[in-house]
Write a structure and sequence with these properties.
2 copies of one chain form a homodimer. Chain A is of the alpha/beta class. Chain A has a single domain (2-275), classed as Rossmann fold, CATH 3.40.50.1820. In chain A, 34% of the residues lie in helices and 25% in strands. In chain A, strands 1-2-3-5-4-6-7-8-9 form a 9-stranded mixed beta sheet, sandwiched between helices. The interface between A and B is medium-sized, with 23 and 23 residues.
Chain lengths: 277, 277
């Protein structure tokens, strides 16, 4: 692991690091905020997964998570959203696919299978680095994210319910196998057999018997992407599966970080209560 | 005034606006956060002046001011740091002069006098727009800023002590007429006669009899620019002038927005107590 930068902030340390990823076959950059409590004891780890077009830095700059993370003593890990580099297959004209749009899956199709393995990266490779390089209590992990990252957080938690104590999302893409901005990517990464898409789709996973005790979601009521995000489908699927979903429709809020940052402190407090409880 | 964008955030509205500035002879962009309280009553105005290389958006993205502004019911106005545009004289290779480096003064030298009038812009032209376009109580104004913007806040307040109820700064350039990163700009904007620089230099203004009841400053103790910022000179000048300076040296903090955002809420609370008192 290489240290790109560190700066003291809100009593803790905001760092940016990079390493060669074997899952993605490229150099990957990620951000970690270590709260002041980590000087004295291992701290819980809260994973934040970002949305389309983002890398590790968007939420680091605009997410306003450090004050709450320092208050609740949680480490915040912010991975990139895809592999990157000259050797990584990409379609630079499509913001919904390729670089910045890894959709937190393991691709099966060529030429993407070699690099696009964000599911393995976020669930296996990066946790090992966090465990070895930071004062982290890996028995206490939570996960959340925004938009495509909300999709990542929910699908990853549904498939690894024993790993994550707490799960939430901001405006998650709840049903990517039916939404116009994700169908093209799923087809390229996973092929035409739509039965294989189900393990990367929150509503399908809930239908197929995966489960979580509770999920917290904040959703802007004025979000331009409301139809594609499908909060109503998420609500119906959670009801059917018996998942306690708290879906806060936030009047007047859009899809941007102006929305995310507004509810960051309350989501972190929610995770903190469960991770420190 | 043209509206470029608005978004709900922390219960208020974060907007970006532009207009043709007569002071600067160019189109100017600025950001305004209007707290929820402005729906019911005129709110105090807190001016935030940004540092070298910044425009209106750096603090809007990274400053973490909206939660505290909404809590204390203050409007935050974030002007740009200089005139901009193809017709504006500039030296694009010098980050300490020209675009992004207006130093909150009125230039007297050609070719800069036509556009570089940020002092008049911030103290006269933009306040008229804020007064007419927003639900602002212009009898209650505070001013603060970072680095070059801290210099702007202190010098502007010292020359207009009746206008601003509260004054603070993050890592201000306290003595620009003696610091290597500002002397060149002062020379180009104001000419060689250094007696004219004194009205744009906090320490000189204090020496020359300008005064304020109190000033709050947060300064990173690990700031790479500590010598150029001259907090010790500020301390000495305030002591001599009888100004109650609270100078918080913040252990381990640098010059970045990771530092600024860490003490944003406490500075806004300080202004809020005075503006709402």
């Amino acid at each position: 692991m290489k240290t790109i930068s560190t700066a003291k902030s809100h009593g803790g340390i905001q760092g940016v690091y990079s390493h060669h990823s074997t899952a993605n076959n490229c150099e990957m950059t990620f951000a970690v905020f270590v709260p002041p409590q980590a000087a004295e004891r291992p701290c819980p780890v809260l994973w934040y997964l970002s949305g389309l077009t983002c890398n590790h830095s968007n939420v680091m700059d605009k997410g306003e998570y450090r004050a709450a993370a320092a208050e609740h003593g949680v480490i915040i890990v912010c991975p990139d959203t895809s592999p990157r580099g000259d050797d990584v297959a990409d379609d630079p004209d499509d913001w919904q696919f390729g670089t910045g749009a890894g959709f937190y899956l393991d691709a099966s199709e060529e030429p993407y299978a070699e690099n696009y393995n964000m599911y393995s990266y976020v669930t296996k490779e990066l946790p090992e680095i966090i465990a070895s390089e930071f004062n982290a209590d890996m028995s206490k992990q939570g996960i959340f994210g925004h938009s495509m990252g909300g999709h990542g957080a929910l699908t990853i938690a549904l498939k690894n319910p024993d790993r994550y104590t707490s799960v939430s999302a901001f405006a998650p893409i709840a049903e990517p196998s039916k939404a116009d901005w994700s169908v093209g990517a799923l087809e390229k990464y996973l092929g035409n057999d739509q039965s294989k898409w189900r393990e990367y789709d929150t509503c399908s996973l809930l239908e197929d018997g995966h489960n979580l005790p509770e999920i917290l979601v904040d959703q802007g009521a004025k979000d331009d992407h409301l139809v594609r995000l499908a909060p109503e489908a998420l609500k119906a699927a959670c009801e059917k599966a018996g998942v306690a979903l708290t879906l806060n429709m936030r009047e007047g809020y859009d899809h941007s970080y102006f929305f995310v940052s507004s509810f960051m402190a309350s989501q972190i407090a929610w995770h903190g209560a469960r991770l420190n409880g």
